[in-house]
Amino acid sequence: MHIRQLTPAIGAHVSGIDLNLTPDAATLAVLQDALLEHQVLFFRQQYIKPEAQRDFAAALGELHIHPVFPSHKNVRELIVLDSHLLDLKDNELWHTDVTFLEKPAMGCVLSAVQVPPFGGDTLWASLTRAYDDLSPPLQEFLSGLTAEHDISLSFPDSRFAQTGEAKAALEKARRDFPPRRHPLVRTHPVTGKKGLFVTAGFTSRICELSPEESDTLLTFLFKHSTQPKYFVRWHWQDGDVAVWDNRCTQHLASFDYGDFHRIMHRATVMGDKPV
Predict the structure, then answer these.
(1) Strands 12-15, 40-43: parallel, antiparallel or unpaired by DSSP?
(2) Where are the beta strands (DSSP E) in the chain?
(3) CA distance 209 to 205
(4) Rounded Cα gap, residues 197 and 96, in angstroms
């Protein structure tokens, strides 16, 4: 197995491993260490089977069942992101997955089942590097604040309530997962590094500030944390797999491939309460 860093801030390519075979304890430990260091790992053309993807993700922790996205027909722990079945054209939002939960995801395993002939890249940004580059006075000010994370920002009626069944499921998800408050700056539970914990996809407001102050500061933080120097861009090939640390990253899936078909499977590994 070989691990090659891709950018100064985030990302590494891993070769010499077959993810259809659940890694043994020693290999898994190496991958976990690499994930802590690089925050997102990429594996070319694995063509991982749904059951193998589930088992690999389960080796990292307990798996999450998403309240809105459809599950794989045979492996319910996998989300199916199909551009011909879901409205993804308005989904170009930087986000950290399921931060509307009390204990958001630790990480995710994403596989490319079918990719378009062009476009459809995914970008991952390091929230720790973005935090590190803030001035000390601003870091100190942010450390005492909390932010609200709302499922409705990324799952509006206009896109996810097109049928009676879908509307009922979305309303249930909103009842089950009301807006959740998390610290604006999160300490990673393993590395101890601090990082921003706000994204355009789910963060609706900073709780301790006025609406005008909150909007102004969030606009700055969203723009600051998504600068190119903080992100890696992955151009998918069929069969690729990405694994990321959801506690210290955000990501964006580009919708720039028109009507071409893009199908991705995602397994989500549960995490802990942000502190």
Answers:
(1) parallel
(2) 2-5, 12-15, 40-43, 78-82, 105-114, 122-126, 146-149, 180-183, 185-187, 194-196, 203-206, 231-234, 241-245, 249-253, 263-270
(3) 8
(4) 8
**Do 123 and 231 touch, CB atoms closer than 8 A?**
yes
Do 75 and 54 meet the contact criterion of CB atoms below 8 Å apart? yes
Q: Which residues contact 122 (CB under 8 A, 6 or more apart)?
A: 110, 233, 234, 236, 242, 251, 252, 253, 254
* Global model pTM greater than 0.90: yes
Q: How far is residue 197's CA from residue 237's CA, in Å, rounded to a whole number? A: 30
Residue positions annotated with a catalytic role: 95, 97, 251, 266
Measured CA distances, 18 to 15, 48, 243 (Å): 9, 8, 14
Q: Which two tokens stand for residue 237?
A: 């090939």
Token couple for 74:
């045979």
Tally Cβ neighbours within 10 Å of residue 27.
14
- pLDDT classification of 90: cutoffs 50, 70, 90: low
Are 240 and 46 in contact by the 8 Å Cβ rule? The answer is yes
Given a contact cutoff of 8 angstroms between Cβ atoms, the answer to whether 86 and 39 are in contact is no
Note the pLDDT tens digit of each residue in 25-48.
Answer: 999 999 999 999 999 999 999 999
Computed over every residue of the chain, the mean pLDDT equals: 95
Residues 6+ apart with CB under 8 A from 212: none
